[in-house]
Amino acid sequence: MNTNSPLPAPGAPLQHYISSAPFDLQSVETMTPEQSKVYQASQLRLMWWKFRKHRLALISGIFLAALYFGILICEFLAPYNLHTRNMDYIYSPPQRVHLFHDGQFVGPFVYGRQMTLDMDTLKRNYIENQDDVQRLRFFCKADSYRFWGLIDGDRHFVCPAENGQLFLAGTDRLGRDVLSRIIYGARISLTIGLVGISFSFLLGIVIGGLAGYHGGIFDLIVQRIIEVLQSIPSIPLWLALAAIMPITWSPILIYFGITVILGLLDWTGLARAVRSKLLALREEDYVLAAQLMGARSSRIIGRHLIPGFMSHLIATATISIPGMILGETALSFLGLGLRAPITSWGILLTEARSVSVIAFYPWLLLPMLPVILVIMAFNFLGDGLRDAADPYK
Question: For 91, left (φ over 0), alpha (ψ -120 to 50), or beta?
């Protein structure tokens, strides 16, 4: 409208001016490509962008992914078979890997060793022979094994030289390579956390979901049970439940028994978290709409309520897994958990229960290192997932 035109007379109809230019609906709120990328991104993409900024969580996630991939091919990664004994190298200390010999590049190699026995202390002393250069072999054939107990194989990622030795983490009282046993033990120690948390999640979501959604007497009974379980010290309860398992059980049954024990003791915290969330979400309008449409309680909880805070549950799971790994390690270390021939990090640490062994053969404590690294990695990963769970903050 022309602002310089005279005002119309009182009572006269107003004149309307309509632009003949085509109307572009998108021009009302035009966004730059950067703004469009953010505002039109899905919640998963926003969570990934926020998680990626947490460097420690990202590195921990890559580290754990590499470990879990490694347990799939642990027979290939281990230099020796799990049960291979080197009777001439009992309690041999770790060997150092060298690249240069006499100023010349040779490649990764170790020096051969000669054993002498101290007749006063009966301690084996190993002396490196600088003239015996043993080059490492890669993607080579060495000890035979059965891949996952199904397929015969003998290919390894790294092997000692022909008629040589390769003990990067030393050997134990039977001459078995500690590094190979750590790699094999990772399969049990890492998977027991995943299986245990799956069992714990099933109990926590079902029991906590029903208690939070229905409330009433069922919620009251569940809360009292949770309070009783949480009031009992964890270690004595672990010991009592582990002692119940018969010694005649096979190693596989003992493995699943330990997993069930860990799951039974870890569901209480998750159940309370699910209950508190559902107490707030059950009053939402979409829950009332689902009820009016005739949806059952299981469908409302599983399809409408649980997905609303699944990111929080995932973060809780990553923080709970370390507790289960530590629980298995503690039970096996005390002799009440897994038993031979199953190999886990806790069983490997039983070799170092004696003070004299720790004093003379400290490398037997090396299985403690992956336990510490895995626990720290899961905690950092849980912190990153917890921060990324709400990408709009």
Answer: left
